[in-house]
Each structure stands twice: as structure tokens, then as C-alpha cells.
Hints:
Blueprint: H1 3-16, H2 18-56, E1 60-64, H3 72-79, H4 86-95, E2 99-114, E3 117-127, H5 131-135, E4 139-142, H6 147-152, E5 156-159, H7 161-168, E6 177-180, E7 183-191, E8 196-197, E9 200-201, E10 205-209, H8 210-217, E11 224-229, H9 235-249, E12 261-263, H10 265-308, H11 310-318, H12 323-359, H13 368-394, H14 398-403
Parallel strand pairs: 3-10, 5-7
Antiparallel strand pairs: 1-11, 1-12, 2-3, 2-6, 2-11, 4-7, 5-10, 6-7, 8-9
Amino acid sequence: MNARESAGIALGALRANKLRSLLTLLGVIIGVSSVIAVMSVVQGLDHYVSTQLVQAGSDVFNVDKVGLEFDFTKIAERSRRRDLTPDDAAAIARSAPHVQAAVAERDATAPVRRGARGLTGVTVRGVEPGYLEVNDLPLARGRPIGETDQRTRAAVCVIGSDVARELFGALDPIGRDVRLGGLTLTVVGVGTRRGASFGASQDAYALVALAVFERMYGRSASVTIGVRSRAPGVFQQAEDETRTLLRARRHVSPGAKDDFEIVTPEMYLSLWRNLSGAIFIVIVGVSLISLLVGGIVIMNIMLVSVTERTREIGIRKALGARRRDILMQFLIEAATLSAAGGVVGVALGVGAGVLIGLLTPLPMYVSPLSVGLGLGTATLVGLFFGAYPATRAARQDPIDALRYE
């Protein structure tokens, strides 16, 4: 009997006992579908995070008081540090040879209105000239916040595309007024549409000159400094120069820790890798338990099959079948059973991934690697757990097998 015939027998057994087959392969199906769905989410998020970091600029870093920290005790401790100021940003831009631009910014959230139309939850950001250059935020039309706007505290703003659509509809916003934080501001620019990030709009913002922002919200708060190096190749030098300049300006003694934090794109990427790695390990562990249970069930069903077909085994041996022929027959049947569960699991996993992508803001990516891994794992489970029943069948004595009732 060749491999094709053995696989046919296995598939025939699946068709003949549909409910038993479903219960037999349920563990494999759950395990494989879980792995596919989780890998689709993780790979989709990996691709999204990498793309976002590239768009933000691999040669851009930020400086603030707190940094990338999630420990509330450390956050409270760092919040008591001395504030960073626009003068610090100016010193970096002026004195760091490998820095192309450094700008200070602050942000808040406020409603924006135009007549009867309004939009809540808009990010209001006070920026210095050069902000768009540092943050790669191109304009669809109009002009950015300029030096004159900052110096004269001009009542002008640049708005995101969502704000423009909600407040102005088909009208051109340039030159028209909006009401923001108690001030009437004239729109001078509209940002290029960037879309949503995890379901949150990236285009619901309004940029004003930092001097105007301070008039609206006061000056007693620290700024965040965005820094762009002259080229990706001198990123480290720009970071070192920024650290040295700030330590000198803030009179940090040699050997003492920085009293500010530098946040780089690699730090975000490393944080995501650690988080996604932990999620993946937990889910894969649960999936492996499902595969283990499924494998044990397959082994039990194969043992039952060996017992039911004892006379068949005896007849085959009497007609000249060797031990390895019987062994291969039952191994192929076990692998086919498990692979069938793997196919169903892959289909369910891909379907779950597509559904998650449609119903949630999570980006999805189903890679051929995850599909191949799911099918390969299922087949290996069948081979591993089918080895004992196959060996038991191959070792049966043909005389005893022919006598079996």
C-alpha cells in the first residue's frame, strides 16, 4: 500500500465518522487557528510599528523630563525635575554640529469651533518654526507656522485634514477663522492626511505658535524638544552632542545621572518587541497545550483504529507486507488526520485574522510563513503521536492477528 492509499484511508475515516473526527481534531484545530490568528496580529503590528517609525524619521529623537516610562513612582519622581525650555532647544540647534534642527513644543486638548460646527478632543500643539521639518508633517495647502508668527504671537493656526473636513466641509479653510481655547485664529495651512493609528485619528490637530500656546495655557510647564540629526549616519553624534549640551546647561555634575530623558525610535521599537514577544510566548504556550491535547486524542483514536483493524493487519502481513509497510501506513494515516485538522485550523485562523482586521483598528498581516508553520506543526503532531500506535500495529504477530475476533 502506497502513501496515497494510506492518506485515502485516513480521509475516508474522517468522512465516515464526522462527529468523532471533529472531536478528535478539535485540539489541533484550536491550536493551529490560535497560532495563525496571533501571528497575523503580531506581524501586522510589527509591520505597522516599523512603518510608523520610518515615517516619523529614523534620524529624529525627543528630549523631555519623563521619557518612555511606565512605573508611576518613577514618573512622579521625574516630573519633579527642572523644566526644559525653548532656550534649551535653541542652544541645541545653535551649538550641536550634527543637529539639523531642534524645536520645542507643548500640547493640550481642546474643542475647536466654527460657527455651529464643533469638534472635541482636538490636539492643540504649540510649536516653534521648523516643527514640520523635524516631524515630517507636510502640508496639503497653505503655509506652516513661521518666524514672524512666533515673534509677533500671530493669531494663526495650521489644522489637520479631519478638522478641516468637519468644520469647513467643501470650503477652502485657508484665510477663514476658527475658535480655539478662547481665541479666534485664522487658518493659514492644512496638513496632509495621515489616517488613523489604532483607531485614533492622526489628523485631528491644530498647530499654533508656541508663544500663542503659552498665552492660552501659561508658561509654567516643561517643553518637549524634537531633534533631527543631519543624516541617519550621524544620529549617535547628534544624540551625544545634545546630551552634553543639556548636561552643561543644567549643571549636571560629572558622574551624575541625566536629569532629562532622550527617547529614540529604537527605544520604541525595543519596547514593542518585548511586549509582542511576551504576548506571542503566552499565546503560543496555550496553543501548544491545545496541540498536545489534540495529539493525545489522535493517539487514542489511532490505537482504537489499530485494534479494529487487527485482522486487516494480519492479512496484509500474511500476503507479504513488512513491518515498515505497516508502520508507514499508520504513520501516514495519523499525519493525514492531523494535517486535515491543520488545514481547518489555518482556514479558521486566517478567517479570524481577517475578521479582527475588519472589526478592530488592529492591522493584520497573514504571512505564508505562519500558514506553513501551522500546517507543518499539525503534521508533526500527527507523526509524533501516531508513532506509538503505528509501532504497535507493525509489531503484531500475523498468526495472532488472523485469529482476532
